[in-house]
Structures are given as structure tokens and as C-alpha cells.
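This protein record is not my work; I was only asked to verify it. Where you disagree with what is written, explain briefly why. This is what I was given:
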Amino acid sequence: MSARRNARPALRVGTHVRFRGVKWQVVALAGQDIHLIGPDGGGEAVLAGHLFADPGFTVIGAEVPQPAPQWGLFETAPAAAREKALAWQRHVREVECGLAGGLGSDGAVRPQYDPEQHTLAQREQAKAQELTALGFGRVSRTTVQRMRLAYRKQGLWGLLDHRSTRAPSPTGRADERVVAAVREALRRRRGRSKGTINGLFPLINHILEDRHGPGTVPAPSQATLYRLVTTLARPSELPTGPVRAIPASFDGRAFTPTTALRPGEQVQIDTTRLDVLALFDDGTLARPELTIAIDVATRAILAAVLCPSATKAVDAALLLAEMAVPHPARPTWPNILRMDHARALPHKQLATLDERLAGAAARPVVLPETIVVDRGRVFVSRAFTAACETLGISVQPAPPFAPTAKGIVERAFGTINALFCQHLPGYTGSDVTRRGPDTEKDACYSVPHLQDLLDEWLVHYHHRPHEGLRHPMMPKKALTPNQMWAALIAVAGHVPVPLTGHDYLELLPVRWQAITASGIRIHHRTYDADLLAPYRGQPSPITARGGKWEIHHNPHDVRQIWIRLPDGELTEIPWIHRDHVHQPFNDHTWQHIRTLALHDNHGDTEQYEADLADALDQLMRRVHSGHATRTEQALIARTTAIPLPTARRPEHDTGQSADDPAQRHEDDSIDDLDDLPDDDTLAPATGFGLYDAHEEADKW
């Protein structure tokens, strides 16, 4: 045996190698050239790099080097097993080279293990007799040979008694047919609501009978089934698991950090319930729904809207426009929260591009290029995708069951709950186990009040250093979202988006209707105005829609619609009974009234519609006076009025400034101002044209 058994194989003259599937012999070495002779006597000169790179290249007869010791696995074995393996290592080394410490160690070679005097078989036989005398049991030469080969192949790990390292079976001695049935039952329940463990037992028995026949497999005891289900189920599938465990649908894909190099390159949008109780209009307490949009490059929360009920597609569509315009600062806010007082923002340079930034809050303004959304109905609706197309935004749906695809917005929800919600009365905690007993008694804020507080907190948030934002020249210093936006906006630039009230109307959901002699009929509601006279019974210029007219409607307030006439403008058409019902209502409330109202005279549609309007007015009066049922109160509470700006013309067309008080009084809302409550807290319109944050916070 070679003295350097553990060395790498070396090429020498006379060595046989396998190359290109043929056996060759090395006859000469000249620098990088290796001269080979094949079995047929033919010669060939090959470069060393080319020879070694051949997938089938091997040195025939060379011993495989001993692998590095697997110390991690070796340390998992019991102490007694490790000591015995180390003893075997000394004996194996002595058999191979004559020295218990290995080649190069100190000491004298004992005569019976001298490689110069005895063969390997003789040395193995001598070691077997010695170990038997030392009390290792009855050790044969074959045992010594087996341990020596195991050491050569696996190192110290091969000398262990692997009976001590064998992992126990998680199912023990249970019948494999029962184990397969338990796995199948868990697979069928995956993706469904979690039940009790006992609820799986009938399903397991049915699977056993279907696969093997009735009575073929003995019915296991409940204790055995309980142990198998607990062992084989995922943590999230057990009813006793943690409240926020990994979802059963999570496929374990690795988290890949999302990278964006400019503001708006990627914006993530999502919706969740806020961890705080709010007082709704009907007096009930519930958690409002929060929808936010966060920019990946700057970690800036571009928009955050609270809704008492489930977010609708029109809410998400209007949220897009809110990102692209400056947010007005409240008159009561300190100066540090205003953009013209924020040192981190290049206000003077941006003000020359966009005059609306003069009175804006110190928050980034970004028009998204790509929006990452989940596959919820709100974000895949036609209204939302059409709004994105109008604004030139690309929609990128996240992969199904992949929460890591929107990891930044998911983490932002945790930040809002940790830094904002937990300091408010009515904080519910992250789950029911962390909820206080008197949370309902502490809740005192309404949804508009919470929106107002959230808007102010968001400005503070953009002044707070974010650990995910680092300057390339100062990697140890965390930047704020405002600082990162200022740094990136200097490179990417800022282009103001001149959105007006027209854009709000364009972002509303669209449907196609005919103009009849009585007006436009939608769900037994008639919309009519004198300006429709020339178009009654006439087809629209859009031949692709069969002559129907383009109608825009607000699902939150169906008291009016907007129609696109041949001049291309959207014109408001009121419901004929709008003056009879002064409070906004949605389609859900209208359908509820239709189910309760009796349609005795099926031919008189006008009287039927008038009866529905009267029933709706009576319902709202009962809710306002406190005499409505709980179902009716909850029904009206779902109605969230979103007043839309009137589709005003640009300033150069009207000759009047957007900040003119007379103009504001006429165009602030499409609703009758006399029907709105008098609220001294309403701030005057700022003239931005698209978004008045204070007014929106009071009415959303």
C-alpha cells in the first residue's frame, strides 16, 4: 500500500487512465502535454486540462482519497459509541501503516504490524486476535477488514455502531396501511377549514375500507390514531397549533428580496383588517378594513385608506389616483410635517415642477409603473384593471399561495399595528389570545377619526429611519423613506400628474345601457334628465356595443350616474327620486328593499319604483331614529359615501382659479350641500382638484 494513501491520485509515466471510454497508458510527460498510448498501439498527445476535464477520466488502480471527517454527524452519536469508534480508528491505522497515530506519527512499529514483513491479510488476522484478547468480543479477520474498508470510505463516521445513530420511526410499529390512510386523510383536509382531530377518524376508517375492504385492516384505537395524526400533520393543520402558524397552503418557497431602483418601479397593494376597534355609524364596534400601497424602492406608504366595510373595486381604483397627487397638510399640523419645512426633501426644486407641493404634507408622491397585487376579487376586477390601464400602470398578480411575493406590504401592516394601532384605545392585539377583557369599552374613535390620525401618523412614519433603506456610500446608516425618495428622485426625476375631477369619474366602473323613452333603467331605478331628449331611443356612436351608451357609476352611491355623450364628456344624470332619498345608498341596500317590497301591479313600473324609493326613505328614517332592527342598522352601516368631485373643466377653460371660493362652493361635491351636516372641522378645498384628504377622512 502507498505511504500516502490519502493523497490525491497523481499521473506518472506508466500510469493507466481511462479517457473517452478507452484505457490508455501514460508514456511521457512534457509540460502540459501528456502522451498516451492506446490498446491498439496508437499514440496521442493531449493537453492536461483537456484530459482532466473529460467526464469519464479516472486513474485506474488509484485509491479514492478518504473524505473529510463528518464531525457534525459524529457528535450526534452517544459518548460510548464515539469512544469505541476512536479506538477502532487507532487499530485500523495500525493495520494499514503500522502506526496507531497514522503516517508521520511518533512511535515504533510493532513486528506483527510491519508492512515490510507481513501482508495486509496477515496484519488483519493479527489485529483480530489482539482485539479478541482485549475484550472486544469475538473479532474475526473479516470484521477487521470490514471496519478498515468502512473507514476508508466514510472516515470516522464509518466506524460508528449505527444502531446507536438510527433515528426512530415517527410512526413506531403502526401498520403501514393505517399510516397511509392517515396521510391520505390529511391530504384531503388540506386547504379546508381546520376541524378537530377526532373528526378525522371516520374519514380514516372509510379510506381503510375503500382500499382494503371492510374488516381487512384491524381498526386502530383512538389513542393510536391521535398519535399518528399529531405526528404526521403539519403544525398549521392541528386545531391546537399556534394562532398564526404557517398556512397549510404555503409551499415552502424561499423568500426572494424584492429590488427596485427608482420610485414607482414596483408598488405593492394589499388589504387587511386593522387591529383596532372603531365606532361605526350604526353604533356597532368592529375592525375597519385598511388598504395601503407601499413603494418598494423608498418604502414610502403612498396611500392608506380605511373603509368600514369590505373594500370594493372602486375604492382600489380611486386609491391609484391618490398616490399620484400630493397629500395636503392639515392646518393644525406642525410645520415639520409640511414639505416646505422638511430638510430631507428637495422642496424648492420640486415646487418649480409642481405648484401643488407648496402646501403638501412631507410625504413622497409617486406614480406607479408596476403594481403587485394578490388575486383578490377587488384587484382583478375590471374597474381596477381599467383604472391601471388609464394611468399607464402595469398590474402584476402575485403567484397563488405565495405570501412572500408581497413581503414588503405584509411587513408594513405589522409596522402600522405595532407603531400606530397599539397606542390607540380599542386596540385588539394581533390575535384573540392578546386581547384585553375591556377592549370594547375603550374603543371611542370613529372610522373618519382613525383615518385622520392615520394620515398624520404616516407623515411621521416617512421621517423615521428604515432598516431596509441604506445609502451605498454609508451602508451603516439607515435612511428614512423621505431621504431615500429625495436621493432617487434626483436621478429618476419627477413628472407631475395633472389629474382632475374628470379622472375620478373615468376611474369609476363602466356598464353599457340603452337610453329609452323614460330614461336609463338600472335595477328598477330610472335615471333621467332633460339633456337626454335628443338621444332617447337613439343608438350610441359605439357600434361595437350594439348602440348602447357608456355609463359610469359609483357602487357606494347609486343616486346618480354619468353618461358619455357624443361630445366625449361625462355628464351627470340623477335618479328621478334622488330628492326623496337624501342619504347615499348602495346597490346592496337597494336589493334588500326590493326583496321586502311587494310588487302587486307588475305593469305599473313607475309606481313600483316610487314605492321602493318610499320604502328606502322609511328605512333610513328608522335607522336615524334608532327604531331599526340590527340587520337594517348593519345594512346601512355598509354604505360608505365617497363624494366625487364634479367633472370641472380646466382653469384655462373657465377663466377661474381652482382656489376661487365661489368656484369651490359650486363644484366641491356632486351632492346637494344643504343635505350634508354642518361640520366646522371641514377644511376648505386646497385646490388640488383630485383629493381633499380632510374631507375624505370625514366621509370614508
